[in-house]
Amino acid sequence: MTHTRRTAAFAMLSIVACAISTSANAQKTSQTAAWPTKPVRIIVGFPGGSSPDLTARAFAEPLSKALGQPVIVENKVGAAGNIAADAVAKATDDHTLGLMINGNMTIAKLLNPKLSYDPLKDLTPVSLLGVSPLVLTAPANAPGNSAAEFLSAARASGDRWNYGTPGVGTVGHIGMELLKAKARMAPLHVPYAGYPQVATAMIAGDLQLSLLPPALASAQIKAGKLKAIGITASVRSALVPEIPSLSEAGVKDLNLEIWNAVAAPNSMPKPVVMRLSALFSEIARSPEMRQKMFQQGWTVQGTSAEGLANRVKADTALLGGIISQQSIKTD
């Protein structure tokens, strides 16, 4: 083959390759523009009335309007949200999302190597919606007139006290284990289906303390059913400015937040993920949603997919370190 013919052949191959690439990109763009083609599911791993459930339902209506399709919230309760996270990870319909808490997207596999999904490999970050410190809460008749006095009573009670959480591996669990080490106390862990059940058990006297989300804690504190001890931060929070930080009671370097975020199966087309990320961010930052989220006890974030990915990486390191230090394992 002469040099001229080779040049012509290469040119033709380049034209064909460009045409194929252009066609593929056009097809992908067309598919993305056409998405969604049916109702979108948001799977939540906790009961109705829980913080993740309320967040999912708050976003469902505006998301439905933006997408032009129904958005259905489905509760799959159990295993600290990991049953729902597994269902999201294995979904292949390109129309399933998950409303996740920290543990589902970070340290679930560290706590249980046999877990049927790997959050870092099987879930794709979409957007971090809201963050919040936790409130150390006790029954209204709990001993002590200050946080320091309560913590002293907790130390004196040894393992005769119980604390509740929405499950093994949640920030409520890992955070309390860290607090136990810092405050030198030893209450025993009792897992429940969700935070509302924890609050109910504490009001009934079955639990002596717990780390609760601010909105849930505040409602019961204002009703006189529970007592606030302090928040898991070094400074007070705008969400509950009347509640002191545990740092004020002498518990230093305890900065823990719970968060709600949206994730998709790793199989979901990346252009769809990017579109969803932009929509969730836009909805989260609207004045109406900011107010609604604040009332539910959240400081709005509305990050990009990359922003959530960075938070997942940071929290995996933080919470994973606590798991290792305290030798926390699934029951």
TrEMBL record:
Which Pfam families does the entry link to?
A: TctC (PF03401)
Organism this protein belongs to = Rhodoferax mekongensis
Q: PROSITE patterns under this entry?
A: PROKAR_LIPOPROTEIN
Q: Does the keyword Signal apply?
A: yes
Domain of life per record:
Bacteria
The protein's matches in CDD domains, at most eight in alphabetical order, are given as: PBP2_Bug_TTT (cd07012)
List the signal peptide residues: 1-26
Q: Which family does it belong to?
A: Belongs to the UPF0065 (bug) family.
- Which InterPro entries does its entry note? BUG, Bug_dom1
Name under which the protein is recorded: Tripartite tricarboxylate transporter substrate binding protein
Q: Which UniProt keyword terms apply here?
A: Signal
